[in-house]
Structure formats: structure tokens, C-alpha cells
């Protein structure tokens, strides 16, 4: 890491390139060094000082993270504090790794409650719950109502018997249908129990594979030479190569309005249609031209959001 900073410092201060560099390597070094500036013999990225060695980076992290007052504040607060004043290659990954190695940070948090052991249910003698046979006295129930069919004609009695028979067959079919549903549910539950171990193993393997991919993809992407906030990407034309000139934690692209108002597909379609109506132009369905119109619509929305009106 220190050798890379020496090459950038030599290029900025004396305009000299390392020996053995070809034209492409010189161009890449010149493009990357354009985002740095020199002040009092030190390199800066905007207002952040460049840390040249890993030992200096570790000491700076200890000053912010292990200070007697306000130390051990977690990953996000430590990152914001260090990134606002210093810069080195892979600083986000280094700070997260060092915090995970801190024993005090791993102990902070809510105390874990141990699971209480299960206690046996106390059994009671049968006499205390039911009582003896001599203490039992039957409780008289309500009187049984008289049948309304007493003295009714025979045809009415026959119709009532036929209705009861139909009701009994209907109830039997419903009970059979309900029993089939219950058996189906039990069968599905049994299959879930037998396949539960396989599903758990599959999910665990997938999570481990995703974690490995994330660890492999964690890398600091180099931003363009004209970018200060370290969030921009290369654009097609020089007119589009503009940066918000903010610190990384204050970048305009990280604000929620950026997604809701500027990058929303519906808002871009409406803005493009209004602009084409004002210019008396027809929407072009060519993919490249459509993509360009969407970009320009996003630029216009951004300018109106930031300045309140469009320029001449």
C-alpha cells in the first residue's frame, strides 16, 4: 500500500512516473492520481488525509474506537467518524474486521437469559379431585319438554321421520368429508417431518454459499477520477461526468428523494412525456435513444430538485 502512495505522490509533486510503465499504465496512474491533492507534504482526498501504512491506520482506528470517552460505539458510528477525516485502501472492510475482533464490542448488548428447566407436574390423589362415592349427589336438571308431535296426524309423523333420516345421511357425508380433510392434513404434516431435515440442510448450505460469495465480492471499487464522493460511475459523455462534491456519507445519491423522485420509473416516464410535448417531439422507441431520454429526464428532475428551476 505504501508503494502505491509513493507513486501517486511522486506524480503529483514532481510529475515523474515509475520506471517500466507503459502508456496505458501511465494513463491509469494519471487518471487515478487526479482525485488526490498535495498539502504540506501529505496527500488528501478532498479534505480527508491519506493514511499510507497499515500501522498508522490501526493506530487511528484505536484512537477512535478505544478512546476512554465515547469508545466502542459500533460499526456505523466508527465508520462515519474515521471516514470523515481519513482515507486508505479497503478501510471499510478493515474497520469492520477490527471491530469484530474487539472483545468488549462482542460482549455489549442485552443480557442473554438462560432457558429455565422444565418442572414435573405435581400429581394429586384421585379422592381430592373427585371425592368419595358417599359425597356425590346428583344435580337435578331442567324438566324434559313435552313432544310437540304428541297427538299429531300420522302423515306429519312420517314426514318428520323422513326429514330426520335425510339429515342423518347428510351429517354422515359431512363427517366423512371432514375425516378425509383431517387425514390429508396429517399426511402432509408427516411428509413435512420426514423432509424437514433435508430442507434445513439445504437452507444452511445456501446461506453458507451466499456468505462466501459476499465475502468474495467485498472489494473497494475505484471511482472515476472526477468523483469526490466515491459514489459516481463512468458516464458516456464529458457533460455527464459531474459529481455532487460531497463527502461519501453526505452523497446526494444516498438520499431517499433520489429513489422516490429522480430514479422512479413512473416519474421518469411522465417527465419524458411532458418534455417531448413541450418540444413537439415524438417518443422514440429505439432502445438507445429511449435510454438517453430517460437519463436526460433524470438530470432535469435532479436540477429542479436542487435549484428549483431549469437553466436557459
UniProtKB/TrEMBL annotation:
Listed InterPro entries: Integrase_H2C2 (IPR041588), P2RX7_C (IPR046815)
Comp. bias intervals (Low complexity): 163-173
One Pfam family this sequence matches: P2RX7_C
Region of interest (Disordered), ranges: 131-190
Biased composition range(s): Basic residues: 145-162
Domain Integrase zinc-binding, first and last residues per copy: 58-108
Domain P2X purinoreceptor 7 intracellular: 208-308
Keywords from the named record: Receptor
Protein name: Gypsy retrotransposon integrase-like protein 1
Lineage: Eukaryota, Metazoa, Chordata, Craniata, Vertebrata
Amino acid at each position: 500500500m505504501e508503494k502505491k502512495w509513493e507513486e501517486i505522490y511522486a506524480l503529483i509533486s514532481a510529475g515523474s512516473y515509475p520506471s517500466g510503465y507503459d502508456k496505458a499504465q501511465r494513463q491509469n496512474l494519471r487518471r487515478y492520481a487526479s482525485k488526490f491533492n498535495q498539502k504540506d507534504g501529505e496527500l488528501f482526498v478532498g479534505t480527508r488525509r491519506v493514511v499510507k501504512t497499515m500501522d498508522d491506520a490501526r493506530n487511528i482506528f484505536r484512537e477512535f474506537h478505544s478512546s476512554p470517552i465515547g469508545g466502542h460505539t459500533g460499526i456505523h458510528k466508527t465508520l462515519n467518524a474515521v471516514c470523515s477525516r481519513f482515507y486508505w485502501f479497503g478501510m471499510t472492510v478493515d474497520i469492520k474486521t477490527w471491530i469484530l475482533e474487539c472483545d468488549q464490542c462482542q460482549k455489549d448488548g442485552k443480557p442473554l437469559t438462560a432457558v429455565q428447566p422444565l418442572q414435573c407436574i405435581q400429581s394429586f390423589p384421585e379422592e381430592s379431585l373427585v371425592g368419595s362415592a358417599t359425597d356425590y349427589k346428583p344435580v337435578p336438571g331442567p324438566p324434559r319438554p313435552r313432544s310437540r308431535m304428541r297427538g299429531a296426524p300420522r302423515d306429519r309423523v312420517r314426514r318428520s321421520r323422513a326429514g330426520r333420516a335425510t339429515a342423518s345421511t347428510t351429517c354422515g357425508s359431512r363427517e366423512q368429508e371432514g375425516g378425509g380433510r383431517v387425514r390429508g392434513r396429517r399426511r402432509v404434516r408427516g411428509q413435512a417431518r420426514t423432509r424437514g431435515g433435508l430442507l434445513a440442510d439445504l437452507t444452511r448450505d445456501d446461506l453458507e454459499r451466499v456468505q462466501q460469495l459476499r465475502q468474495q465480492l467485498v472489494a473497494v471499487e475505484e471511482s472515476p477520477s472526477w468523483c469526490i464522493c466515491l459514489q459516481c460511475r463512468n458516464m458516456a459523455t464529458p457533460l455527464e461526468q459531474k459529481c455532487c462534491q460531497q463527502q461519501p456519507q453526505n452523497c446526494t445519491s444516498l438520499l431517499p428523494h433520489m429513489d422516490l423522485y429522480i430514479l422512479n420509473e413512473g416519474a421518469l416516464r411522465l417527465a419524458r412525456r411532458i418534455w417531448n410535448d413541450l418540444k413537439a417531439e415524438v417518443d422514440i422507441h429505439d432502445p438507445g435513444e429511449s435510454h438517453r431520454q430517460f437519463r436526460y429526464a433524470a438530470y432535469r428532475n435532479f436540477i429542479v430538485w436542487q435549484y428549483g428551476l431549469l437553466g436557459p
